[in-house]
Amino acid sequence: MGCYDCCMRCLGGVPYCSLVATLLCFSGIALFCGCGHQALTESERLIETYFARNMQDYITLAYIIQYFQYFIYGLASFFFLYCIVLLAEGFYTTSAARQTFGEFRSTMCGRCLSSSFIVMTYVLAVLWLLVFAFSALPVYFFYNMDATCHTIDVLTETPASINQLCVDARQYGLLPWNAVPGKACGMTLSNVCKTREYQMTYDLYIAAFAGAGITLLALLTYTVSTTYNFAVLRYLGRKGMGARC
């Protein structure tokens, strides 16, 4: 066998669908976890500096942010391992691997494992859809805040109406209703929107939201890939009915 034939055989053994899904999952999780972790830290700093004077007013929010950051650590580790396993399962069912190992037959264990991956990936995709929707909430909050600041900049000639334009963190459940001041209005709010911390936090939340979308796309791609792999194993099982795990 020539070098060209060997290369084509190796390239034919690559599960491209699973490989693309793995790259999407790695990049999406990296964006979501990395940017989300830093955005939560910056959000706590913004709340502490501009919306709450007493630490007791945002102590609950600080604990929630800390728990979410721990959750992000576990999430990144889980998806890294799960994507590696799904990629290995994709290699397991490639036609080139079957051609290389001519005695290969699908086992009952292999078919059960592949069907388990289908169910797990489908459940993860549904759960991640909720995470994707949840990650849109801080983007919505900062979008409203940015729109209010833009309106204030347009109405700078009428200071009386400017002071009536506010963003109240208490309305979004970020602070208790007895928090002081709990909101930022007028030029104070406009100055907040011009700070580097605000701009960076807004961009980080947008990046985390995009990362959640990329991860959702990767999980949907994995669902298609694992379903195809299961169909391949079912076909091989009919060819080798005597094989067992």
Automatic annotation (TrEMBL):
<protein>
    <submittedName>
        <fullName>Proteolipid protein 1a isoform X2</fullName>
    </submittedName>
</protein>
<dbReference type="GO" id="GO:0043209">
    <property type="term" value="C:myelin sheath"/>
</dbReference>
<dbReference type="GO" id="GO:0061564">
    <property type="term" value="P:axon development"/>
</dbReference>
<dbReference type="InterPro" id="IPR018237">
    <property type="entry name" value="Myelin_PLP_CS"/>
</dbReference>
<dbReference type="GO" id="GO:0019911">
    <property type="term" value="F:structural constituent of myelin sheath"/>
</dbReference>
<keyword id="KW-0472">Membrane</keyword>
<comment type="similarity">
    <text>Belongs to the myelin proteolipid protein family.</text>
</comment>
<feature type="transmembrane region" description="Helical">
    <location>
        <begin position="204"/>
        <end position="231"/>
    </location>
</feature>
<dbReference type="GO" id="GO:0005886">
    <property type="term" value="C:plasma membrane"/>
</dbReference>
<keyword id="KW-1133">Transmembrane helix</keyword>
<feature type="transmembrane region" description="Helical">
    <location>
        <begin position="113"/>
        <end position="137"/>
    </location>
</feature>
<feature type="transmembrane region" description="Helical">
    <location>
        <begin position="70"/>
        <end position="92"/>
    </location>
</feature>
<dbReference type="Pfam" id="PF01275">
    <property type="entry name" value="Myelin_PLP"/>
</dbReference>
<keyword id="KW-0812">Transmembrane</keyword>
<dbReference type="GO" id="GO:0022010">
    <property type="term" value="P:central nervous system myelination"/>
</dbReference>
<dbReference type="InterPro" id="IPR001614">
    <property type="entry name" value="Myelin_PLP"/>
</dbReference>
